[in-house]
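Proteins fold reproducibly. Look at a sample protein:
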Amino acid sequence: MSEEKKKEIVRITKFVFFSISAGIIEIVSFSLLTELSTLPYWPCYLTALVLSVLWNFTLNRKFTFQSASNVPIAMLKVALYYAFFTPITTIGGNYLVEHLHWNDYLVTGLNMVLNLSTEYIYDRFVVFKDSIDTGSSRAA
């Protein structure tokens, strides 16, 4: 196996584990808001999503992609991803929960799986494509 392929497998593994930690933050905050408030689905989901995005971006920029790129520009690129992802999953999720009576935890879980797969591709090939491994002398 080539060195580049090994590095990419390590990168994907890190991304998955950091995304799992962000998922834990998302589901715990979503659960607290859902169970302890009378808020409808969408503000619970949206708040939880924002918290997990901040966590995930910070860890993945530093440890997964080891990027020394301009943080505000990288954040802007991630914000562009979420400018599309968030309305689709918030409105779609709210429709599934409020009108089709799907379980809100199922819908949130499906959104999390969709987010994991699409965000890795976007981060790898758009946000950090030209700055991978520039933030550390030790390439991982």
Observations:
- The chain has four helices and no strands.
- The chain has one domain: 3-127.
